[in-house]
Amino acid sequence: MGLLGILASVFLLSAGAARSPTIYVPARTGGWPDWLAGPLRGIGIGMAISSGEFQTLTLIMCAGYAAALVAAHARALSLRAIVVAIAAANAILLLGPPLISQDVFGYLAFARMGVLHGLDPYTHVAFQAPTDPIYPFVGWPFQHSPYGSLFTLASYATAPLGLAGGLWTLKAVAVAASLAAVALTARAAGALGRSRRYAAAFVGLNPVMLELAVGGAHNDTIVLAFLAGALALTAGAVLTAGAAGASTRAAEDRAWTDVHDGGIDGRPPRHRAGALALAAGVGVKVTAGIVLPFLVLAPSTWRERARVALAAILGLALVAVVGLIGFGAHALGFLNAVGEQQQLVAGHSIPAETARLVGLAGTPGWWRHCFVAAFALVLCYALWRTARGADWRVAAGWSTLALLLSTAWLLPWYAIWPLPLAAVGGDRRLRAATLVVCAYAILIHLPLADPLLNAPVLHTEPRHGHVGALGR
Fold first, then answer.
1. Counting Cβ atoms within 10 Å, is residue 133 exposed (0-12), middle (13-18) or buried (19+)?
2. Domain range spanning residue 315?
3. What Å distances lie between residue 426 and 7, 245, 253, 393, 394, CA to CA?
4. Pick from 179, 213, 210: nearest CA to 414
5. Rounded to an integer, what is the distance from CA 134 to the centroid of its chain?
6. CB 68 within 8 A of CB 201
């Protein structure tokens, strides 16, 4: 029933959002062409989705997710059923309009600036090309690109496709990256002797992953795919079909022991390849780099750690070279944009909400600095623990959660960042904390949270608020 609840709610959300313009498709500010609404518009199911209906369907999705996790843990669901449900949910979201966010149009705007207008997205903003037909759909036209050079250059391929072709290409990329992240996370979990079915359900059926990340076609799913790839590479050998005569399900759930992080069946984990994968993730979004030092410290010997560090430096250097070829002296301009964004405050970030609770006016700089200092302490402690032999995946997961809790620029789809780490780390407390953060990311979109949190953002009329923020 959990899987059916998820699929039903995803379908009704997507179809309801496609029916007619609503606040749940912020890009409607540019108009309501058929290519934006998507093929689900023609189904004609119901009226435009209301805030109450959105809340009800989202809560059903969350309940279905909880039921699916319980069933997966109890082995009441097969891996095949989970995979089919994840694929179906992603396919439905692919057919619907971009939900909750206008970020995908920011990606397209930066690509069109570079290809069609000769404007470097690291030194220019969308407002400087106001005649481009993408402009009315952009949420934040005064922001420079905060994305890495690999993603920015790759997105240039969408410019010749037009608005419709570019949008649906990026939506397909987000779905493909989401499915890759789920598959690689399950692969890593199996190699580490943990349940593939639970790992797949934990990541792939998560409402933040579906409704916010995939629904909004965010490039965070690409970052997640690189992270999951690093987890699969560093997990060592992959669990296969077991001894002759054993059933598929028994082989899938067979317990393995990962001794001293040395892999399974004598096959060592590929830390250096994992470091290269994470370096590529940094080329999409700089936040992928938070996991990199933990992976460097993952091997048990300092000699191997030095080799992994060299691989990481090589990977980052290659990303920098690509950036220099594409953007010259402005190749690292995205770091300036990220710095600019960190001066902003999202209304539902933890620093902003706690400042309100203690009666502060706004979110003072010193208050934000306290959270940054707390994050630095957590990060240093986690790195120290990793250097002394703690599981680097768990340490990186806690550090990622600390980053989410400390940043004043918290957007809800960021909550997917620790999902693969929590899924394969084997720490129940980390999984529980990750689910709490995901629940918060969902809660802030629902009317029932209005009395508890700052002024609502999504169910009032946004234009340049955090709904349309150009993903960080």
1. exposed
2. 2-32+44-241+248-339
3. 28, 29, 15, 9, 8
4. 213
5. 24
6. yes
Beta bridge partners of 382: none
Nearest to 466 by CA among 413, 394, 419, 424: 413
Per residue in 253-309, pLDDT tens? Answer: 333 333 333 334 445 679 999 999 999 999 999 999 999 999 999 998 999 999 999
- DSSP reduced 3-state for 264: strand
Residues of the chain with pLDDT under 50: 237-266, 456-472
Per the structure block, which two tokens stand in for 148?
């890495």
Are the beta carbons of 272 and 308 closer than 8 angstroms?
yes
DSSP E strands in 216-262: the ranges are none
Rg (CA), the chain: 22
Number of structural domains (the chain) is 1
Give the amino acid at 21: P
pTM, to two decimals: 0.88
Angle at 412 between CA 408 and CA 416, to 5 degrees: 110
Do 86 and 181 meet the contact criterion of CB atoms below 8 Å apart?
no
Asked whether residue 344 is domain-assigned, the answer is: no
**How close are the terminal C-alpha atoms of the chain, in Å?**
36
The residue assigned the tokens 């050998």 is: 237
Instruction: Answer yes or no: is 181 within a domain.
Output: yes
How far apart CA 340 and CA 106 sit, in angstroms, is 16
Q: What is the pLDDT of residue 254?
A: 38
Among candidate residues 298, 302, 287, the one with its CA nearest the CA of residue 260: 298
* 264 phi, psi to nearest 5 deg: -120, 145
pLDDT at 188: 95
For residues 49 and 13, the answer to whether their CB atoms sit within 8 Å is: yes
Give how far Cα 214 sits from Cα of 175, 222, 470, Å: 6, 10, 15
CB 151, CB 345: distance < 8 Å: no
Please indicate, yes or no, if residue 354 is contained in any of the structural domains: no
Length of the chain: 472
**Tokens encoding 389:** 């032999």
The residues pairing with 267 across neighbouring beta strands, listed in sequence order, are 264
Q: Is 328 exposed, middle or buried (0-12, 13-18, 19+ CB in 10 A)?
A: exposed
Alpha carbon of 6 to those of 18, 274, 413, 434: distances in Å? 18, 33, 18, 19
User: Is the Cβ–Cβ distance between 162 and 396 less than 8 Å?
Assistant: no
Does 434 fall in a domain?
no
